[in-house]
Amino acid sequence: xxxxxxxxxxxxxxxxxxxxxxxxxxxxxxxxxxxxxxxxxxxxxxxxxxxxxxxxxxxxxxxxxxxxxxxxxxxxxxxxxxxxxxxxxxxxxxxxxxxxxxxxxxxxxxxxxxxxxxxxxxxxxxxxxxxxxxxxxxxxxxxxxxxxxxxxxxxxxxxxxxxxxxxxxxxxxxxxxxxxxxxxxxxxxxxxxxxx
Length: 196
Fold this sequence. Notes:
The protein is α+β, with helices and mostly antiparallel strands. It has five helices and nine strands, in the order αααααβββββββββ.
């Protein structure tokens, strides 16, 4: 995979008539780093992918997503208010796009009404990553490793789901959130083995 990624970077760079030195000057990466990436000898990180994609004017996902053997043409639609609802203590989860099979993320609309960790079911943890954006209201996120964090309308956060966490509503009304949970850690291109 790393060699395929390197070839993608090389071909895109050449299509734009850029040398390694041109790409180095525009991205702030060294010629050596870029050469290793193009030759499949260095793993790409999100930070490196963003810098290169910006210069080459391509979506960053073209460097981070593992290629699929066949193009996919799938979609799932959830009309407003029609998602499957799950109510727990102090929380209401509306599952979005639940009929989409073999997905790598779960999507939810969440309403938080509990005003303490006890009122929202206490600590929780799960594999993967969790993304939260506050759509309305004020949310207080509790985690085992950080001080409570207050998030207001429009604020968003991404964190490791393995870290124990819990939600509390602040303010007069409920906190409404958009939430996404990855079902597995994202795959970055691995370093080639010593014999590759």
